[in-house]
Amino acid sequence: MGWADAALTSPVTGLPLLADTAHSLAGGSERWPVLEGIPFLRADRRSLADAALAALDAGDTEPALVLLLGDQDNWARTPPPDEASRRAVVRDAGHISFRDAMDRLAFGAVGAYFAHRWSDPTFLSGLALAEAHWAAPARVFELACGAGHYLREFARAGANAVGGDIVFSKLWLARHWVAGPAPNLVCFDADAPWPFAAEADLAFCHDALYFFNDKPYVATRLLAAAGQGTVLLSHIHNRAWPNFSSGAAITLPEILELFPQATLYDDH
After folding, report:
1. DSSP letter at 243?
2. Could you tell me which residues are beta bridge partners of residue 161?
3. Chain Cα centroid distance, residue 266
4. How far apart, in Å, are the Cα atoms of 5 and each of 9, 27, 104, 105, 199?
5. Is there a smaller number of Cβ atoms within 10 Å at the N or the C end of the chain?
6. Which strand (E) or helix (H) includes residue 140?
7. In Å, what is the CA distance from 124 to each residue of 18, 118, 120, 243?
8. How many CB atoms lie within 10 A of CB 111?
9. How confident is the model at residue 184 (pLDDT cuts 50, 70, 90)?
């Protein structure tokens, strides 16, 4: 887990989590699965975590991975992929494309969004924001990192990058097709207690703030994660402006309540 290694904690009890096997973390009587270096720490998915752990403890990595690849967030617009498709994407991961993998995982419109993200104006505006405030951070944390597009850019710039997302399959895609092995990845729910307390020089969140239910809590944790560094939020969405996205956007006055010292830019 790189710089966050010593700070991993249970999202349920807050106890420190340490590796007890090559595929699990333990704290007190709790254990959590780790697949392909990605800890699965969703507090609201305890039964799923236990099922994946049982498979891993039995030496069955593929069934554990197939289980976690079927998990989604509450805003998903498509049904989860069936088990046969999940097994196929695990089996063929070494020789299929990024787009093929997302199709098999039933990403739907999100797959198109990720496939074309490199040229998406909102992605480019996020890059411009990061470049405008870049101060050679040694440690970067990205919340809701998705398939790892920004993580790859941060890692290429020499930062020690850590990404967190609520959907395990997105992190798995980041590891295999987009961000590669360099960034450290954690699967957790940002509306629940965060499973780490380490500080980064830059805390970044793009095109996701409107998805969180407890925005004041998430804002507090982002500020804490940045410590004495910088928090950058891009493509926040303004509820007063028509759009067709999922989530629960807020207005500019509400954004300023969350980040009263913020500098605001028009997202054009």
Report:
1. -
2. 140
3. 25
4. 10, 14, 32, 30, 12
5. C
6. strand 139-143
7. 38, 7, 6, 19
8. 21
9. very high
Report the amino acid identity of residue 59: G
User: Which amino acid belongs to residue 96?
Assistant: I
- pLDDT given at position 268: 60
pLDDT tens, residue by residue, 8-29: 999 999 999 999 999 999 998 8
Q: Which of 188, 137, 144 is nearest to 3 (CA)?
A: 137
| Residue 93, phi then psi, degrees to nearest 5 | -55, -30
Dist CA 59 CA 93 (whole Å): 20
The DSSP code for 16 is B
List all residues 6 or more positions away from 268 whose beta carbon is below 8 Å from its beta carbon. Answer: 125
Q: How many CB atoms lie within 10 A of CB 138?
A: 12
pTM for the predicted model, two decimal places: 0.94
Residue in the block written with tokens 């990403």 = 107
Backbone angles phi, psi at 161, to 5 degrees: -100, 140
Helix 83-91 with 61-69: angle, nearest 10 deg: 120
198-207 pLDDT, tens per residue? 789 999 999 9
Express each pLDDT in 31-51 by its tens digit: 999 999 999 999 999 999 999
- Please name the residue that has the structure tokens 């049904």: 79
Contacts of 179 by beta carbon, 8 Å cutoff, 6+ apart: 147, 148, 149, 151, 152, 155, 161, 163, 185
For 79-149, strand residue ranges (E) read: 139-143
